[in-house]
Amino acid sequence: MSVATKTDKIQRLAELTATKETSTGASLWREAFRRLRRSKMAIIGAAIIAVFVVIAIVGPYIAPHSPTAQTWRGEVFPNRGEFVGPRAGNWFGLDHIGRDMFSRMLVGARQTLLVGVVSTLIGLSVGFLIGGLSGAAATLGGTTGKRIDSVIMRLIDMMLALPSLLLAVSVAAVMGQSLTTVMIAVGVVQVPVFARLLRGSMLAQGGADYVLAAQSLGVRKRRIVLSQIVPNSLSPVIVQATLSLATAIIEAAALSYLGLGNPDPAVPEWGVMLAQAQRFFDNAPMMAVYPAVGIIVTALGFTLLGEAMREALDPKLRG
Fold first, then answer.
1. What does each C-alpha distance from 294 to 27, 198, 230, 253, 273 come to in angstroms?
2. CA pair distance 87, 83, nearest whole angstrom
3. What is the per-residue DSSP string for 78-117?
4. What totals of helices (H) and strands (E) does the chain contain, helices first?
5. What Cα–Cα distance (Å) separates residue 57 from each residue in 50, 130, 214, 244, 297?
6. Which region holds residue 218: left if phi is over 0, alpha if psi is between -120 and 50, else beta?
């Protein structure tokens, strides 16, 4: 058999393999979307997230009162345990210095969403760069690549060995008290998760048929990694990003609760509101219940959607 004939056969095999992979990839996403539409868990999670996002966007414009104005301060006496509960003019009652709780909940939703999204984007971006570098080094092979991968993974293991909240508190304590600090601290906690997940997905994709076909055609490994392996490794990372939003909101609330959040207590944010309410829980428990329920329900929405996406993209669950 001539060299030209062998080359033609290899090229046809590569084209067939690439076509099959593309078709399978496209059908996988279509099937995943169909599974999501039939999943009650995904529908409930998406509905909760949609309501939360709408409230975060329009909340400051529809709030009936100023969230920082102490309009009814003369009606509240926290030293004597006298608080104003829900009434016609204040649907959620008043806080300890006479501010409208309903307005603060509406405006605080935007701050909570901002912290969750920005911190997740920080963790995703940095984790993507680190995990992509490590995965590419391991996939390309060679002594230098393996050493780079080993060094990066040992650093990631050190970060994963620390409890996430302890790591976030350490970063926030070093950087100082601010809303930006909370975003960065929570984002740093997410970095090792995204990095290890992307690296593992890239290593799994490294042995796929389309990679072998491309290598048989003489395509450079670097091009295979950038144009094929990395795009096909993103689906678990996207799912993890959805789940990480729920974790980010909870951890940001925890940092605010510990006093490491926004230094201005007048700015409404659910974690800060929860921290302020702990002193008056015996006499005004609803001051803590409202932000706590908001945090729990929002985190639940992201978790439900993320778990539904995980099941929809899992090949073991496709029937």
1. 37, 31, 36, 11, 11
2. 12
3. GGGTB---S-SS-TT-B-TTS-BHHHHHHHHHHHHHHHHH
4. 12, 0
5. 11, 33, 47, 21, 17
6. left
Which tokens belong to 221? 């490994």
Q: Tell me which amino acid residue 124 is.
A: L
Average pLDDT, integer, range 261-280: 82
Residue 315 exposed, middle or buried by CB count within 10 Å (0-12, 13-18, 19+): exposed
Read off the amino acid at residue 203: L
What is the per-residue burial (b if ≥16 Cβ within 10 Å, else e) of 255-281?
bbbeebbbeebebbbbbbbbbbbeebe
Are the beta carbons of 164 and 189 closer than 8 angstroms? yes
CA distance 18 to 215: 12
**Which distant-in-sequence residues (6+ apart) come within 8 Å of 229 by Cβ?**
135, 139, 202, 205, 206, 211
- CA 152 – CA 250 distance, rounded (Å): 28
* Nearest-10 crossing angle of helices 40-62, 3-38: 70
pTM score of the predicted model = 0.77
**Residue 25 backbone zone (phi > 0: left; psi -120 to 50: alpha; other: beta):** alpha
Distances, alpha carbon 159 to alpha carbons 126, 147, 168, in Å: 14, 19, 11
In the three-class reduction of DSSP (H, G, I as helix; E, B as strand; rest coil), residue 53 is classed as helix
User: Which three-class secondary structure state does DSSP give residue 266?
Assistant: coil
Q: What is the pLDDT of residues 96-134, one digit of tens each?
A: 999 999 999 999 998 888 888 899 999 999 999 999 898
Judge whether 196 and 138 are in contact, CB under 8 Å: no
- Structural domains of the chain in order of their starting residue, each with its CATH number: 3-75+89-317 (1.10.3720.10)
For residue 279, give the amino acid letter.
R
Mean pLDDT across the chain: 82
The neighbouring-strand residues paired with 82 are 77
